[in-house]
Write a structure and sequence with these properties.
Chain lengths: 64, 400
């Protein structure tokens, strides 16, 4: 599983960071950083929740 | 007692309704799902309507949440342009404005809310509210016609975003707010004042503590007369004075109404009937308080919850920490929690003067909320503390 963020859509609301702070981090420069682009299958349900809850639908999962 | 419905009908095809439909399919529900919406458009996202679409940066298609093909792929029957006018719980039938009657088994009520309007402005062109895509495009056309001045009535979040977008287009903007401090009843006076200063820094003529007496014009709006007798010339007026939940169609149906559709803690309204989104009032057990929440995040999450509740009686209470964001100028304002204006407010990170800060709210020894100006990371971390029921002292001591 590879995480893809469309940074043109991302508005740094940090919803993903609340769900998976070990994978996503919005820093004080207001930008989102992906801390782990290729998390393991154990993280899939949390990443899927990030995909669903993102207010801008900016996150997707590649490499299924 | 109650069994899983054979079919689910969702009334209301905006964010809550769409999330309900999608959650049913995600959770493996195989029966028929019907999504009925009053507007002619497939579900679209409302936040961009006061920002990117209104600014002209986005064409309206970009705000779409889905399209007819995607709905077909999910085997969701979508019926748009149909307004529900009545509900018969015994016969399990809906009445539509066309006179048609629709049978249902499971039902999600997600009819949302509509804008309050100013009396006496019917038929006066140039006077707008902003809720729907059609509202947005009508307002956008007026803003593109290079008006001399835009008057925004109400300095709530919608009014503030419209003012910011209009300033971004280089237009002269006056905002009229009845309260002495914008958002004072939400954020308290100290933080409301920060919001006021943001507008003034961006050249908005902000008038506070004064109401609107009337809006005048001959066919087209010409001026706004304030309660102190002052007049403001205006080519375009945007009224942002709150919303009213769409519950009239449920009067006499047996569904309990009280500024919204009254639900239990799990979003259940009646047997195999749930409600979600701006129209739903429910006891949020995390706060020990009954609430109706008009935020994007709530509509999405509650829509999914209301759908799951239909499928599984064991679905627990819906008890989120309400959260929203508002983008104004170059600031991202976020509020999470359930704050009151007289809560204790402490700035815990950043600088109010630079308008990059996080402040937390506390009451009765507990953290009740967090406000961020360009501090999404802090908002989400304090939001987690609110969810855990942390004490105010613990939150103050946290180092994020």
């Amino acid at each position: 599983m590879r995480i893809v963020v469309d940074f043109d859509l991302c508005e740094s609301n940090a919803v993903c960071m609340q769900i998976a702070p070990d994978i996503f981090e919005v820093r004080d420069d207001d930008f989102l950083y992906i801390l782990n682009e290729t998390p393991g299958e154990a993280d899939r349900s949390r990443v899927e929740e990030c995909v669903q809850r993102c207010p801008k639908q900016a996150i997707s999962i590649a490499g299924d | 007692m109650t069994s899983t419905p054979r079919a689910v009908t969702i009334v209301g095809a905006s964010l809550a309704g769409l999330n309900a439909a999608e959650a049913l399919r995600r959770d493996g529900f195989e029966g028929p799902v019907t999504l009925i919406g009053a507007e002619d458009h497939p579900p679209y996202d409302r936040p961009p309507l006061s920002k990117q679409v209104l600014a002209g940066d986005w064409e309206p298609e970009r705000a779409a949440l889905t399209d007819v093909e995607e709905l077909e792929d999910d085997d969701i029957e979508a019926r748009f342009g149909l307004r529900a006018t009545g509900l018969d719980l015994d016969a399990r039938e809906l009445a539509l404005h066309t006179g048609e009657t629709v049978s249902f088994d499971g039902l999600v009520i997600a009819t949302g809310a509509r804008c309050r309007t100013m009396p006496g402005t019917d038929g006066l062109s140039g006077v707008h509210v902003l809720r729907s895509l059609d509202d947005c495009l009508a307002l956008r056309a007026d803003l593109e016609a290079a008006p001399q001045r835009v008057v925004v009535v109400g300095a709530g979040f919608i009014g503030a975003e419209v003012a910011a977008t209009a300033r971004g287009r280089g237009l002269e903007v006056t905002v009229v707010e009845a309260l002495p401090t914008p958002l004072g009843r939400v954020l308290g006076d100290e933080m409301g004042s920060v919001c006021a200063e943001v507008h003034r820094d961006h050249g908005v003529d902000l008038r506070t503590g004064v109401g609107v007496d009337r809006i005048e014009g001959d066919h087209r709006v010409e001026r706004v007369v304030l309660s102190d007798g002052a007049t403001v010339d205006a080519d375009v007026v945007v009224v942002g004075i709150g919303v009213i939940p769409n519950t009239e169609w449920l009067e006499g149906s047996g569904v309990q109404l009280d500024d919204g559709v009254v639900c239990d803690a799990s979003c259940l309204v009646a047997e195999r009937v749930t409600a979600a989104g701006d129209v739903a009032r429910w006891p949020n057990q995390l706060f020990g308080e009954t609430m109706r929440v008009e935020h994007w995040d709530n509509a999405a999450a509650q829509g999914a919850h209301a759908a799951r509740r239909l499928l599984d009686e064991g679905t627990g209470p819906f008890a989120p920490v309400p959260w929203f964001w508002s983008d104004q100028y170059d600031r991202k304002i976020q509020l999470a929690g359930r704050v009151r204006p007289d809560d204790d407010v402490r700035v815990v990170n950043g600088s109010v003067d630079e308008r990059r800060f996080a402040a937390i709210y506390g009451r009765a020894g507990r953290i009740t909320g967090v406000l961020g100006f360009n501090r999404p990371r802090h908002v989400m971390r304090y939001r987690a503390l609110i969810e855990q029921g942390a004490s105010f002292a613990e939150a103050l001591a946290a180092d994020f």
